[in-house]
Amino acid sequence: MKNYRFILVYLIMVVVQVLLDNYFPLSRYVLISVLPALILVLPVDTRPIAAMLLSFALGLVVDFFSNGMLGMSSLALVPVGLVRSAVIAGVFGDELTSRGDELSVHRLGVPKMVLTCLILCAVYFVVYVLVDSAGTVAFWPAALRFGLSILVSTPVCVFVVRQFRP
Amino acid sequence: MARAGKFYLGLVTAVIFILLEIAAISLLKRSSTLQNIWINRISHNVMATSWGGLTKVRNYFGLREQNEILAGRNYELFKELQHYKELEKTMNAMARLDSASLPSRFNYIPAEITAMGTNSRHNYIILDKGSEHGVKPQSAIITPNGVVGMIYAVDRRYSYGLSLLNDKVSVSARIGREGLVAPLSWDGHSFDRAILKDIPLHLTVAEGDTVRTSGISAVYPPDIPIGVTTGSRLIDGAVNVVDVKLFVDFSSLRYVIIAENPDRQIIEKMEE
Fold first, then answer.
1. ipTM
2. Which of A30, B1, B222, B242 has the fewest other C-beta atoms within 10 Å?
3. Closest residue by Cα to residue B157 from B128, B136, B134
4. pTM for this one?
5. Dist. CA B46–CA B52, nearest whole Å
6. Chain centre to alpha carbon of residue B50
7. Gap between the Cα atoms of B182 and B190, Å rounded
8. What range does the domain containing A47 cover?
9. Could you say which of B16, B31, B41 has the minimum Cβ distance to residue A70?
10. pLDDT digits (tens, 9 = 90+) for B250-271
11. Using CB atoms, which residue from B16, B25, B37 is nearest to A71?
12. Taking CA atoms, what residue in A is nearest to B21?
């Protein structure tokens, strides 16, 4: 029952991401993405290979249904899947994985969750902004876009994580 | 064992990561022109850098072979350089002869000595210029340092001359610029000495005076230095002879000038 709920909410979040991309563009300097959160909320013992494969597929689905370029989200999200386990181990410690516990915002604390989301968002947006600008945007505008996107997306991601792992 | 398993897992993870990124890039290239151009540019840069690095490595390991090739080329260039140096020496010698302050009434042809005899009383000289170069018989053979001889016969490409070290050759000479004129010839005793003959008894010649061609001749240009007087002797109680040390060193002579007087035949006709 718990798994069905997880999957349902997961699909809803994918739809939300598609809707955000298609109908709620805040600014050309601000990107909102919940995709790093959707990778983060996978079971803690998920291996990087599985996380990367899911990241690739998830990115493709979102790009396919969005107006975006096919492959862009996959390109940015696969590194998130790669570093996810390392980031979790780094922020929450090895005990989390060794005990077999799952993430919990309440138990592990909001600050650590914010830090985790911040790191994953940074990994995601650094690739996304770099590839999206394709060498046509100067450094500082691109940096501003990167910073603002992290600033907006990190709380959103924490909120999304809380829906899955309260 | 566990460490090896971890290593292989890490390797597989890295490979899958790279494959997924390549797949994403391929999709992106197909869906966006801008990204396509950008990715192509980056990939070209990466490839150029890689090839450049590989070339540097290959060049480094190929240095031995390159060194051998360069050594070979160095040797060839050295030989060529020597050739040009010798050529330059020849040209300079020719130029020195050309630039000598020679009277312009004569035509001058630079020449190189092909053969020269110095061990008889009738020494000869063969030059590498002949009739096709404008050489005519009865032309003077000189250097800026003095008289060498006279052209006797001319072939198409070579000319045969009588050396000053030949007792048949006589040069009209003058002691000093405005002094006594007398015939100069070789006495057959020494390769660096000649004598001025028929000097009247009442005239005294000081030692150290420069002897030059007199110019009273259709063959030799005037004021070509010949030598320097070293003393005089009384011959047969009637005339004096003056010993002259020649300026020309016949043992090291190589380049000469053929001086041809275009008016020689007219002058000789008038003399007749």
1. 0.88
2. B1
3. B128
4. 0.51
5. 10
6. 52
7. 20
8. 2-21+31-164
9. B31
10. 888 878 888 888 877 777 777 6
11. B25
12. A75
